[in-house]
Design goal:
This protein is an alpha+beta fold. It has 16 helices and 27 strands. Helix content is 31%, strand content 21%. The strands form 8 sheets. Strands 1, 2, 3, 4, 7, 8, 11, 14, 20 and 21 form a 10-stranded mixed β-sheet that branches. A 3-stranded antiparallel β-sheet has the order 17-18-19.
Amino acid sequence: MYRTKMRKKLLGLVLTLVMVVSLAPVMQAGAAPAAGGEFDSLLTPKISWVLTASSGGEYYMAYVQDGSDLTNNIKYYTGSFLAPQNINQQYIRIGVPKAYLNSDGTINPKGEVNGFTASTAPIVMTIGNSGHAGTNVGYPDTDRIKIGFISVNVGNRGRDTLTNGFGNNKLPYIITDLKSVVRWLKLNDSVIPGNVDRICHVGSSGGGSTSSALGGSGNMPIFFPSLYEVGAAGIKYIGKGDPAIDKDPKNYVSTISDQTFGAAAFCPIQTLDTADMAYAWFRNPTTQLNAKIGNYFNDNALQAGVTGALMRAIEEDLYWAYIGYINELFAGTGLYLAPDGRGGTFYQGVLDTITYSLNTHYKSVFEDAAIRTEEIKKLPSYSEYLVIDEAKGEAKVTDMDAFILHVMPIRNKWTPAFDIFAYADRANPNSGTSNSFYLYGRPAADNFSYSHYSVWDASVLQANYNKDAGTYKNNDPNINGGEDIILTDVEKYFIEAYIQDCFEDADTAAYVAEQVFMLNAVNMAINNTDIAPYWRIRHGIQDEHTSFSVSYSLARMLEIKQGVNVDYALTWGVTHGASEGSGYSTVNKWFEKITKEANAKIVDVKVSAFVTKLNGNKNDLTITVTEFRYDGKTNIIKQTFSINNNAADTYNVGPYKVYVDTKGNDQIRACYIVK
């Protein structure tokens, strides 16, 4: 029953959002704006480059004038009158390889590091936002600078940002600030080394989430009003009303693209509106009610007075709801979950990623198959979830529940895991495992103002809550003796607040639904077109913070809907964090790889030919094909053929078929590449 209600409610919300996005103008659409954005003239400071020492050698750091002081804190927004800013967070710091600049601060076009130059090097943004919190700006990454990257460390607002008595911690500011950085870098392209068509970014946890949203939201008009609010580069108001009130995206235009090139995310805490269902599905309460739960369902560790029985019952309902969600999300793609949630191509896909992680790890450590087999068998109770091929020294994971039970850490969240109950009492918010909910709701004078955001959770609660009886329907005989759960006044208050926010307060629900859209990278993969063309997602195999299915769903949707290049894997032996064991070094290699591949792409091809006249009725035909690469380099393919006088034919020159028609022994009548 609740699945049907859920679909109807969500369909209305999705249609509303699609209308919001589709009715807005695309880049530079509508009335043509002036040559630049409204705030551009205020966002082009004079850059001074200061040689800076580090353990990795000298590099240049960007400085700007701030009154009488020179500072490396560079403001990437104007701070228009429409929205309060946070002066401690909204800065960037930029580091550049020494070879890319002359001593007078001008760009050195001949300087080269690791095959990159000032015009071809990637610009890599480091994003903080752990727990979706605001981040003070840090220093450039010298490891990246050493290998020829331009390093940009980003400070931006988040769910805990509070300035001058006004909470500006709500969505979309956490993403708007990141998009403002991209726009600032592109506006100042002529004075900062690096290729603005190769802007990459990486973050972990909440930062992995915002990195994903930045990569997925390129040029989305839904962000235009908030970009104008902060005074970002390349944005202009063309409406006839007051931009302080007018939030209609079609009344704004953009003159700068904020699409990025490479999006990297470690253990992204993404799709927050469905993450509670994903966590329930991952931990599977139908079989593991007493396994690896720690204190999170015990009555002595309640979240603000919610009993363990109620949390268990809700988690089971979320588990079943997730099956319907996944099957609707991936309808027609071949990915699905079986009715019990532990079968189907989606489930098998998650198992396969675990299998790949296990075998990749053991092969990297143990070369001999027999030794690998011995080491794999040291995993606890391995026979319950592994099938081992001893000849190859490989294993296949066959049961996720047993794997989680024996290999994964104890869970670190109660239920709901993200949009949790513990904060439903606005007057007395409690500490808990998650406060991402502070991103949602209207800005107010304190950080404790928020709204519930998961309509999926709310649909489950609404379908099972009997307000008149004061009970929650229990569908499991192993919980509460199979009886419906009699709710305390606190529990009833929490459930009713959830339903009120998501369904009964229409204005709040619509406002929050738009905020949900502006962080959900899966929705962006479905609806947007200007997403980053390259993605890399890593998730620690022992990450207890969220479900593997969150990152798996994002990776698959990017591939299915966008056809983009997604490098996705789970990392063995790693918990929540950088998800690579050796920090960010491996992701740097990926940034290097995708940039060099893109720089080497051929952007134009020209062909020419000439005939060398010989004695008799034979001549030599020389055909030259010149490939022009993105990075300015050329590749010449030349080949000579023996031909008859006045020959007309098609010739294979490298990978090209070239048609040449000769005349009068040594003249070329026509010469072109055959498509």
